């Protein structure tokens, strides 16, 4: 049964053999090529184009992953991007092979892919790292190019099947790092039983040099990184809603 799965092909941007910030424990991270979003703060714009990247079979990748099994056995494997759920069949195949070898699996996703397409991969994963870009649909379109509707639908589905979810939220000054926005986010998330952690991620400029590659004007060059105090205040706000920050 696994042999046909091994031959399914996907398009890969890169891999990280010792990821420490992509889910619980030390993890092997597979970055998929291609993303339908155009986040203003994206630090990997070189992963946007679906026509680029390296073609790999699920079998080739699982063999590479298993070379690091001793290092990741208490962590696992995370599929990231780009947007991994834009290649749902390949995600499903690779996750299935990981599960066959007893590896914990996670998908790091924006939730932008409609559930009717992404569900086949989500169902196989042990957990999701769901990046909630912006709590307001209109502002989400400004920030990323698309609304948050599919992300909300994805979260609702995870709630219905009790799939564990870590929420990720990038705190961008003048955009998402506003008290009223964080309050609305907290009010929205507080009743979800599937949400086991909320990660507030400070905006940074470390990927700014990559924007020259895609020949797109970078609009946030004058936006500063949040201060430690601002991030602590954001964390305290979420804690006041009893969220697992």
Which residues form runs of ≥5 with pLDDT under 50?
A: none
Rg of Cα set: 18 Å
Query: What is the terminal separation in angstroms?
Result: 41 Å
Mean pLDDT: 96
- How large a portion of the residues is in β-strands, by DSSP E? 15-25%
What series of H and E elements makes up the topology?
Answer: HEEEHHEHEHEHHEHEHH
Q: What would the principal axes of the Cα set say about the shape? A: globular
Largest sheet: 8 strands, mixed
Strand order of the largest sheet: 3-1-2-4-5-6-7-8
User: Which structural class fits the helix and strand makeup?
Assistant: alpha/beta
Question: What percent of residues adopt helix (DSSP H or I)?
Answer: 25-40%
The number of distinct helices, counting runs of at least 4 residues, comes to 10
Strands, count: 8
């Amino acid at each position: 049964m696994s042999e046909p799965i091994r031959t399914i092909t996907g398009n890969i941007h890169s891999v990280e053999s010792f990821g420490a910030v992509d889910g619980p424990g030390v993890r092997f991270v597979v970055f998929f090529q291609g993303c339908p979003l155009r986040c203003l703060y994206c630090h990997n714009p070189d992963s946007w184009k679906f026509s680029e990247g390296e073609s790999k079979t699920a079998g080739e990748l699982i063999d590479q992953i298993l070379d690091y099994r001793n290092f990741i056995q208490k962590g696992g494997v995370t599929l990231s991007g780009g947007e991994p759920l834009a290649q749902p069949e390949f995600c499903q195949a690779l996750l299935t092979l990981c599960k066959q070898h007893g590896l914990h699996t996670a998908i790091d996703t924006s939730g932008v892919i409609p559930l009717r397409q992404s569900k086949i991969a989500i169902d196989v994963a042990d957990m999701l790292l769901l990046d909630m870009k912006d709590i307001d649909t209109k502002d989400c379109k400004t920030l990323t190019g698309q609304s948050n509707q599919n992300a909300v639908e994805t979260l609702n589905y995870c709630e219905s099947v009790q799939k564990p979810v870590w929420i990720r939220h990038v705190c961008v000054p003048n955009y998402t790092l506003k008290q009223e926005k964080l309050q609305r986010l907290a009010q929205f998330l507080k009743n979800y039983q599937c949400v086991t952690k909320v990660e507030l991620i400070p905006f940074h400029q470390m990927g700014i040099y990559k924007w020259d590659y895609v020949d797109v004007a970078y609009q946030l060059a004058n936006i500063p990184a949040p201060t430690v105090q601002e991030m602590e205040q954001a964390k305290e706000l979420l804690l006041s809603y009893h969220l697992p920050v």
